[in-house]
């Protein structure tokens, strides 16, 4: 009888060893139901929608970016001299974006920017009225007020640009004298 009892105990011990253990899931912070997850997402969206200043970043504003805008768009505006003298309203109207980008990127002072926008509006009012005299007057006022001059490339005076980041790189003003 002792032997049988020992044999039954041995079988019970081995059966217990191979029995599946109850698996309990470890508690984590992500153990939640759909309703809790949806509530948390909605509250996070509400917080983010209350912070509109995050979406109003306008990029870097420096003297270099202002010079680049004045160089690129100022040259496009200066190139309109012959079109304005000929009374070609379509050519000036086609460069409307150059005026807009010059005003927004090339002028940082608010008072000067407001004056430039007013002068731009005068140019395009003359175009709408098909008045060549008013266009010439408004264009010359805009150029003189904002200091827009055509840049002439002169190889004999030196290098036109020094790197690919210079605004003169792919323009007529960006020449490099190579021996």
From TrEMBL:
<dbReference type="InterPro" id="IPR040933">
    <property type="entry name" value="PSII_Pbs31"/>
</dbReference>
<feature type="domain" description="Photosystem II Psb31 protein">
    <location>
        <begin position="60"/>
        <end position="149"/>
    </location>
</feature>
<protein>
    <recommendedName>
        <fullName>Photosystem II Psb31 protein domain-containing protein</fullName>
    </recommendedName>
</protein>
<dbReference type="Pfam" id="PF18240">
    <property type="entry name" value="PSII_Pbs31"/>
</dbReference>
<keyword id="KW-0732">Signal</keyword>
<feature type="signal peptide">
    <location>
        <begin position="1"/>
        <end position="17"/>
    </location>
</feature>
């Amino acid at each position: 009888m002792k032997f049988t009892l020992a044999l039954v105990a041995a079988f019970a011990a081995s059966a217990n060893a191979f029995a599946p253990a109850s698996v309990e899931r470890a508690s984590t912070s992500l153990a939640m139901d759909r309703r809790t997850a949806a509530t948390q997402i909605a509250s996070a969206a509400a917080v983010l929608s209350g912070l509109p200043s995050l979406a109003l970043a306008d990029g870097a504003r420096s003297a270099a970016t202002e010079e680049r805008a004045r160089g690129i768009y100022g040259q496009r505006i200066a190139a309109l001299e012959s079109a304005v003298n000929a009374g070609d309203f379509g050519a000036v109207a086609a460069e409307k974006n150059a005026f807009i980008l010059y005003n927004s990127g090339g002028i940082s002072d608010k008072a000067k920017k407001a004056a430039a926008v007013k002068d731009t509006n005068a140019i395009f009012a003359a175009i709408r009225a098909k008045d060549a005299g008013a266009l010439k007057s408004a264009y010359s006022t805009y150029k003189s007020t904002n200091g827009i001059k055509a840049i002439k490339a002169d190889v004999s005076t030196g290098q036109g640009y020094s790197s690919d980041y210079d605004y003169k790189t792919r323009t007529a003003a960006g020449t490099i004298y190579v021996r």
